[in-house]
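> example.struct
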């Protein structure tokens, strides 16, 4: 779905300009997104399998919930909205622990360049995975994976290909932060 988003400079500072998401991706304009990683008390992460019709990384496993921040929308409101839309879970801002902002540049093709700042949060999953309602247009599947198995698969050249290729520093930060919360 196309939406109006705020454009940032290469340092993540708002430029006071907006563009449709499709134009930002076509021209490689920087913009902001939210990433929300859900974890369980027993050391598992919730991951989603992107639908096969996604423009970027179709069919790969990714962060629990992610999405673009709409123009004029606060980061927290965007995170809350995306969680509700993608997995049908109502949360509050208090349930989100921000762990950082990660710059990401991925050139998928000449017509699709993702230049994003991922505002990244952790949140405890307090209900069984079976009670989540996945957004079928975005997500093919949801599953819980142990932190240890996730880390092992990311470090295996073959198994890592099933995941969206975020930087290893990004994934390491997520895992380390979750370990500190448990």
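> example.seq
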């Amino acid at each position: 779905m196309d939406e109006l988003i705020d454009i940032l400079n290469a340092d993540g500072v708002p430029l006071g300009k907006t563009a449709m998401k499709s134009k930002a991706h076509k021209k490689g304009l920087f913009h902001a997104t939210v990433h929300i990683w859900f974890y369980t008390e027993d050391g598992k992460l919730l991951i989603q399998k992107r639908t096969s019709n996604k423009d970027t990384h179709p069919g790969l496993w990714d962060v629990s919930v992610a999405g673009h921040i709409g123009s004029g929308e606060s980061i927290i409101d965007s995170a809350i909205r995306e969680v509700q839309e993608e997995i049908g879970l109502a949360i509050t801002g208090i349930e989100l622990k921000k762990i950082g902002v990660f710059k990401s540049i991925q050139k998928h093709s000449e017509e699709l360049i993702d230049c994003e700042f991922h505002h990244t949060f952790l949140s405890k999953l307090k209900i069984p995975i079976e009670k989540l309602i996945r957004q079928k247009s975005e997500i093919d599947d949801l599953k819980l994976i142990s932190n240890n198995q996730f880390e092992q698969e990311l470090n295996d050249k073959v198994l890592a290909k099933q995941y969206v290729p975020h930087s290893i520093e990004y994934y390491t930060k997520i895992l380390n932060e979750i370990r500190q919360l448990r």
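> remarks
Strands lie at 4-8, 14-20, 30-39, 44-50, 61-62, 65-68, 97-109, 112-124, 139-146.
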